[in-house]
Specification:
Layout: H1 19-28, E1 32-36, H2 40-48, E2 53-56, H3 60-63, H4 75-86, E3 93-97, H5 106-118, E4 124-128, H6 134-141, E5 147-152, H7 158-161, H8 171-187, E6 191-195, H9 199-208, E7 213-216, E8 224-227, H10 229-232, H11 254-266
Parallel strand pairs: 1-2, 1-8, 2-3, 3-4, 4-5, 5-6, 6-7, 7-8
Helix pairs in contact: 4-5, 5-6, 6-8, 8-9
Enzyme class: transferase
Keywords: Cytoplasm, Magnesium, Metal-binding, Pantothenate biosynthesis, Transferase
Organism: Spectribacter hydrogenoxidans
Length: about 280
Amino acid sequence: MKGTLYPHLQERPERPVTLSDLTRMKQAGEKIACLTAYDASFAALEDRAGVDVVLVGDTLGMVFQGADSTVPVSVDDMVYHSRAVAAGLYRPFLITDMPFLSYATKHQALDTAKRLMQEGRGQMVKFEGGEIQAETVEHLSTRGVPVCGHIGLQPQLVHKLGSFSVQGRGDAAAQAMLRDARLLEDAGADLLLLECVPSSLAAEITANAKIPVIGIGAGPDVDGQILVIYDILGIWPGRKPRFVRDYMQGAADIESAVRTYVDSVRDCSYPAPEHCFS
């Protein structure tokens, strides 16, 4: 890529990560290291540090735009940030969030996915919801759109839930989440994200799933971990989430902090018990 600001984008011996690679990693018991990014510079840094999957999360509404939830984020916002992140990546697999009410129907979801993948250059779309989204997952998957399902805590429902709290506690809630995971996979989801789920439940979902399961606040037994890039750098506007570890402590610079995060996911030293929910 002549004239690029990022030397790592030049031809490299390793090839970019694919969905097949992520499935192979699950089967081999190799942990998948994931982070969010919202711009080309952080994307390039994460690429150099060895991150496997980059998510352009609608968390940008909170960490980038200063809102108190992800609800105000638009499709235009996601397209803009996804395209910027894609410009800084070579190796990592790129997932882009579908924002609030941009997938209310399966036809709307397909239109949103088209924009996020064509204009935003995402390689997969992610959206929240369990059984209620199974038909939408099937509609997209059969048309060639890779889908990541998102269950557990669903931040776009914060005004309905009332708070950002752990989900899946109690037998009924756990059984419902196990059913949601199975239905999403059966509908064609290629990846599953679990957020703020008791570790034992996340372990059971992961063991039952044939597709890779990524966790955030979901304990150590999922196939991979994801955190918000600003959180691992000690930048949070309010109370630090329980599942976050500050990797800037003792780090020489930001890139070494990200490398330490990647290493800690791969050697299973993160998450530690203090980062997990029961």
